[in-house]
Description:
The complex is a heterodimer of chains A (about 280) and B (about 140). Chain A has about 280 residues and is mainly alpha-helical. Helices cover about 75% and strands about 5% of the residues of chain A. In chain A, strand 1 (about 140-145) and strand 2 (about 150-155) form a beta hairpin. The longest helix of chain A has 26 residues, at about 195-220. Chain B has one domain (about 5-135). In chain B, about 75% of the residues lie in helices and about 0% in strands. The longest helix of chain B is centred in the N-terminal third of the chain and has 38 residues, at about 5-45.
Amino acid sequence: MTPAIFLLVVFAISLGAGLLGSLLGLGGGIIVIPALTLLLHVDIRYAIGASIISVIATSSGAAATYVREHMTNLRVAMFLEVATTTGALTGAYVAGIISVRWLYIIFGIVMAYSALAMFRKRHQVSGPVPHDRLAERLNLHGDYFDEATKEHISYRVTHTPVGFGLMYVAGLVSGLLGIGSGALKVPAMDLAMHLPIKVSTATSNFMIGVTAAASAGIYFARGDINPFIAAPVATGVLGGAALGSHLLGRIRGSAIRVLFVLVLIWVSAEMLLKGVR
Amino acid sequence: MKPSSEANIQVAATEKLISNLLRTGVFSSAALVLLGTIVTFLRHPAYMRSVDQQHQLTDGRISFPTTLPAIVQGLGHLDGNAVVMAGLLVLIATPILRVAISIVAFLQMRDRVFAAITTLVLLLLVASLSLGRAGG
């Protein structure tokens, strides 16, 4: 393979990763890392560095549109970022103390359960949610225009303290295992806080860039971000995310939910395998 | 979304500000990365044909600038890798700038609680940056 062909292949894969990631609120690492290591035999160090770039590119590439279209709940995102960044920091501190093997198994099971719970909600019509004083106080409730159903949707946020706790765990796990915590953020917002699924993925998309940026500086300085690999990943993912951000509004929430559940089952299986091996 | 009250207009302005910042960051980063890649290929025409060079580029045997002074120096020599790295730095800086600019926006809206929350996030980010490890 010539460097030129390599560049084109990585660009095409990244385009797909950015598209899927932007629709589901994930970072795209689940596509970028195996594609680079297994398919293209890139050093794992560079693959991880490129996946950090992929997370930031997915987030910023799609968030410009999601924020403008009111799909991102900015207040929820910024409040929960306190929990994810604290969690990520804790993860960095306790790394080495906790057995990573068990974490893979525990969170593999948590994700499988979340996938099931999210799948069960697919026909559920959103009704009134329990009153939440914190959500009231912080003025977290929101609304957006759903292009797929041509409806103006107003929603109320609930169980904010539970969501905050779950986000701390999501940050902790990503700090320890280095996996994109989007796979835990979306279920937390969907199942606990009762945000509409598209708001959950768009808000997760908004949040993942921040914590990834904090760790990217380190990878950058350490020389793990190789320009030859990161360049097609960055441009491809940005393009895919821009495309995805214009599609999310038009796709029905139930379709996004089913797609997310399928990807979550995949991530869960991958984690269980890592824990068992 | 129909901004009716004054508060809604302010929220819409914040959203526009953040959206524009993200858009500017993304576009300038993509432009630099693309430009750098083109420069690299113009300077190494063999990349279009040579089959064995790809391994050198992807298995850890090439050097590229990883510090700001080295990148600036590389830009002076019109080094393609330095241009790409500058673009990637812009990409990494964008979300952090987004948090910083939100603080200002919340202060303008006199939303002290959220200005404090966002400041805390920024401090935590700086802490992770200095600590060395934290995940996405």
